[in-house]
């Protein structure tokens, strides 16, 4: 009745129950949220120059649009935050008459990991079994990166003239001269265990309601007409038939 | 070894079989009930690849919810490539439509440099929310699903585990 196998089974079962209960409590407390967050996130984003060029659907050109982004998302880093995913989207109405809903495309994103606890596996290993065989440059690089995560409280973003990571296209192929476009900043908290939280959802309004006035929405702008499509250009070179599938304009913003 | 089995009356044996069948069917009912509640064909999935690191690692368990038909950019969805039965967990980076037109999505893994256009079926540029998406990730538990990955990658583990369980059932005197 009390042989070794039974004891092992009981212990393992008890361990599972405890781990499960702990995970549920952590997940629940993160949603309540308890302890209450200090401060609330705020962000402001503004657009610089936008350009629309012709290109193949996945054509990468060198010139891009720029935007400024300033955000303070440090209140979202709780004890249950594993990382924060911040992304900037360009929103514009799908069709000219506004019937089709709003199209959104991510132009820039970043992952902000939470600072690692001093008891994490890496840090403990580093403390008790430091690597002595490292080359000088590697240790310098590592110490530099360690400094940047320890000293700076995560969640502060200040970017000026930031070039976007992704060039966006529209499935209709035409993105020039669309009006009522805005840039939005959004975030997504990835927990260690539990529910994922977005700024747009119900949980997001409990955990991190945007500061009034600093919602992270830029002013309305319009996509300019296609670059190089000025009507005064009369002189044409030898007629170039576009290659199949290469005439869809790409937003080079 | 088999004397313990032989000493059982047929009625007791039948009761044991019934108990076993009840356990199995309860588990099945719970699973299907969860499927109906979340409106998803597979409400709990295990992450198989590292394309969403550092958010999700291999072996993480994800809970899906499929009743939010207005998927926003930034949500993480599980979708099936049309024509294949491979579910992929990636983040939505673009959306078009919504309103009266069907919602179309483009996805990309956080750890990938390019979006998923190459993963989609030939001629397919975007996902349709109503047809291709299995669900949207709402919750997550780390590591727990690693057992299923081990079981599927090392099939001898499955037979070994089943054999071990059968052995303990037979050897236990109850």
UniProtKB/TrEMBL annotation, chain A:
Region (Disordered): 221-253
Transmembrane residue ranges: 12-34
Protein's UniProt keywords contain Membrane: yes
Membrane topology according to the record: Single-pass type II membrane protein
InterPro entries: SPC3
Annotated Basic and acidic residues bias: 229-238
PANTHER family, A to Z: MICROSOMAL SIGNAL PEPTIDASE 23 KD SUBUNIT SPC22/23, SIGNAL PEPTIDASE COMPLEX SUBUNIT 3
Function: Essential component of the signal peptidase complex (SPC) which catalyzes the cleavage of N-terminal signal sequences from nascent proteins as they are translocated into the lumen of the endoplasmic reticulum. Essential for the SPC catalytic activity, possibly by stabilizing and positioning the active center of the complex close to the lumenal surface. Essential for viability.
Similarity section: Belongs to the SPCS3 family.
Name under which the protein is recorded: Signal peptidase subunit 3
UniProtKB/TrEMBL annotation, chain B:
EC class of the enzyme, as a word: hydrolase
EC number(s) reported in the record: 3.4.21.89
Keyword entries, A-Z: Hydrolase
Name of the protein in its database record: Signal peptidase complex catalytic subunit
Organism: Vermiconidia calcicola
This protein's encoding gene: SEC11_1
